[in-house]
Specification:
By secondary structure, the protein is of the alpha+beta class. It is built from five helices and five strands, in the order αββββαβααα. The protein is 35% helix and 11% strand. It has a three-stranded antiparallel sheet, with no helix packed on it. A two-stranded parallel ribbon has the order 1-5.
Length: 153
């Protein structure tokens, strides 16, 4: 049976809907385009909603995390978790989103830092790695909170 040729966007949507795509979608940048969710990432020095201070040491470089609000998991009970429902969406974000080509690409917002990156920024990589061994139960609480945040967004 001959199937009508569909573009990559239509084919990917068919796969997402558990239909019968003409080919296996490959997420190589040719089908998905995104706008950073506001307040999620900046290429400058700033403090994010998680309380992590980021410092851009050279122009054009991705900033490095300089403070780690959960470096010590004893602070876990008093740490104020960011509200995923309060992400900002600026006029500039909307302008970027409106400029995306909807005829051939899928679109959405994205988080830059997911589970491991978020844990490293909150705790510092060394503290994160040590916590896996010394405080796995407390670390799981932090992991669950990050996962819950990410699921909402």
């Amino acid at each position: 049976m001959h199937m009508a040729r569909v573009n990559t966007r239509e084919n990917t949507l068919e796969a997402i809907r558990h239909g019968k795509p003409g080919f296996v979608p490959v997420f190589d940048g040719g089908v998905w385009d995104a706008v950073m969710l506001g307040g999620n990432f900046r290429c400058e020095s700033w403090t994010d909603a998680w309380g992590v201070k980021w410092v851009q040491e050279l122009p054009g470089m991705v900033p490095s995390d300089m403070t780690h609000p959960l470096a010590d998991l004893s602070k876990l009970d008093t740490y104020v978790w960011p509200d995923p429902w309060k992400l900002t969406w600026t006029a500039e974000d909307q302008k970027k989103f409106d400029a995306l080509d909807r005829t051939r690409m899928l679109h959405g917002g994205c988080h830059v830092y997911l589970l491991c990156e978020r844990l490293c920024s909150l705790m510092g990589m060394d503290n994160f790695l040590v916590a896996m061994y010394e405080e796995p139960d407390r670390l799981k609480v932090a992991i669950d909170r990050i996962v819950d945040y990410t699921k909402v967004c």
